[in-house]
Amino acid sequence: MKVHAIAVIVTLILGTLLAPLTADTQEPAKILRIGVLQGGSPSASARLDEVFRQALRDLGYVEGQNIAVEQRWAEGRFDRLPNLAAELIRLQVSVIVAGGDPVILAAKQATSTIPIVMSSVGDPVGAGFVASLARPGGNITGVTNLAVGLTGKWLELLKEVIPGIAQVAVLRNAANRTHDVLWEEAQGAAQRLGLKAQGLEVRSPAEFEAAFEAISRERAGALVVLPDPMLSGQRARLAELAAKGRLPLTYAFREYVDAGGLISYGPSAQENRRNAAAYVDKILKGANPADLPVEPGKFELVINLKTAKALGLTIPQSILLRADEVIE
């Protein structure tokens, strides 16, 4: 009995001594790397970046504990995108989040195996990013703006606000190939509405002043800015130049209206980022991007009444009633 009792005591002591050692030698939780590739700048995307991070936190991800978010910005220089994408791949990220056609293209060209989540894209099928919206078929999925088809809506809104308008300027990034399609749409919509469309191509912010001088010479009555990371990153300056030229400005995303633009109609960029986080969650849990349908984002109409007043415009009640938000 004494021998047995001693053995039990020794066993208990050893168990007590070894328990902390076992706990201490357990492998730490694996940290998954999420790559975020963007065409703009950190300051321009700060608000949306925080929306994305908060969405990940809501899904149970904690930076430093189970995930690390690796962000790279092209600062409007699309020629930097291939190197930035390659950098993320060298970091062995589990998924890449990319927004805008040039950014998604750079990620697509860099990898055919790492999943890519589109946080915004105009026409993913037409751009060749996915085989179809229902079954993407490759390593890319995510959220689409369905921006193709919206150009006519922007011109209709301007015509409704300014019935006597005769000409609208359309600002585009020469490096963004989706803008070729949107420009064709703008011309067709303008013709249907009895408007003249003035196309203006820029390659960098250094060309903005010349573009606005051309708008002034041609006496355009309003400005449409096509969706693009470089242009969006300069939205405050574009809104300032539009205000200086007394030009009503319309865009796809509400961030331009927050910056002083007149009207935005299109997908909610914040909702797109939240949805992108949901795609990341599914992929990290084992879902195949080829089988995750590409989904359209939520659309919203936002009006800036302060800007309308400064321009001497009266927004029709029919538009105000349709608006999701009115800034006063």
Textual characterization of the structure:
Helices cover 44% and strands 20% of the residues. The protein has a seven-stranded mixed beta sheet, with helices on both faces. Helix 10 links the parallel strand 9 and strand 10. The longest helix has 23 residues.
Write a short abstract of this structure.
With 328 residues, this protein is an alpha/beta fold. The chain folds into two domains: 32-146 and 269-297, Rossmann fold, CATH 3.40.50; 151-267 and 300-327, 3-Layer(aba) Sandwich (Rossmann fold), CATH 3.40.50.
Q: Which features characterize this protein?
A:
328 residues, alpha/beta, Rossmann fold, 6-stranded parallel β-sheet, 13 helices, 13 strands, 44% helix, 20% strand
What topology, given as strand order, has the largest sheet?
Answer: 7-6-8-9-10-12-13
Rough shape?
Answer: elongated
Largest sheet, strands/sense/barrel: 7 strands, mixed
- Helix proportion: 40-55%
Which value, in Å, is the CA radius of gyration? 25 Å
| Low-pLDDT ranges | 21-25
Number of E-state strands: 13
**Total tally of structural domains:** 2
